[in-house]
Design brief:
40% of the residues lie in helices and 3% in strands. The protein is mainly α. Helix 2 packs across helix 4. It is built from six helices and two strands, in the order H-H-E-H-H-E-H-H.
Length: 121
DNA sequence: AAGGTGACTGGCG
DNA sequence: TCGCCAGCCACCT
């Protein structure tokens, strides 16, 4: 533990791609979900979906950011047995009102959130 | 400074 | 319909 996990801390306060990811995820309201590719697209890097996932990975457990509201384009959780966090994410989403089917998929067409739709219709 | 990794995505068989 | 391969971006050592 040499320094903070926060990328901005390493940059001396300069905002980075990661901060943009955290900012976008932080705007996602409870009960809604977004995909890695979607976040990347909103950040201006439609092909940086992997970097988005890596950004959340850097959180390492920072619950200040609703990382659990970010799932893959398949509507499922990507952690896939990499750690207990996978089950945690599903449980958190179900608790917020996002159900998963037997296959572990959710209806993106119904729960995917987009900026500007903070719950208003 | 360069190489490798990874919580991704889309196309093919 | 499902599984596998290659490409892509940004961070870490």
């Amino acid at each position: 533990m040499t320094q903070e996990n926060t990328p901005s801390a390493r940059r001396g306060g300069m905002p980075t791609f990661y901060d943009a990811v955290y900012a976008f995820v932080g705007k996602v309201p409870a009960g809604r979900v977004v995909t890695y590719g979607q976040v990347a697209l909103e950040l201006g890097a439609p092909a940086a979906a992997r970097a988005v996932g890596y950004a959340l990975h850097s959180l390492r457990g920072d619950r200040n950011v609703p990382w659990w509201r970010v799932i893959n384009a398949s509507g499922a959780i990507s952690l896939k047995g990499r750690g207990t966090n996978a089950d945690l994410q599903r449980e958190l989403l179900e608790e917020e009102g996002v159900p998963f089917n037997i296959a572990g998929h959710t209806d993106l067409h119904a729960y995917r959130w987009w900026p500007g739709q903070d719950g208003e219709s």
